[in-house]
Amino acid sequence: MDSLFSEGLTLMAFGMGFVFVFLTLLVFATGIMSRLATRFLPEPVAKAPQPRPQPAAAGGAASNNDEIVAAITAAVHKYRSK
User: Can you tell me where the transmembrane regions are (predicted)?
Assistant: First the structure.
């Protein structure tokens, strides 16, 4: 029974050691790939947002809104009359 227990502990130590070494190598490999990616593939620089054009005159916008309201009212009236 002592031999079986000893073999189990040995197998556990080798298994845990292998996993530890593999994960350590994986951390280093991921770090190296991250450095290479940032060096050779930099993030694109974001462009500044374009300013929106201002409306030309308040009088023209009011008449435009009146036309839109009239068109919507006519469409609703026609839809409800069916």
Answer: 12-32
Share of the chain above pLDDT 90, in %: 49
Q: Which residue has the higher pLDDT, 18 or 77?
A: 18
Structural domain boundaries in the chain: 1-42
Q: In terms of C-beta density within 10 A (0-12 exposed, 13-18 middle, 19 or more buried), how is residue 76 classed?
A: exposed
User: In the predicted model, is pLDDT for residue 32 greater than 90?
Assistant: yes
CA-CA distance, 10 to 17, in Å (whole number)? Answer: 10
Task: Report how far apart, in Å, the C-alpha atoms of 81 and of each of 27, 71, 73, 74 are.
Answer: 71, 15, 12, 11
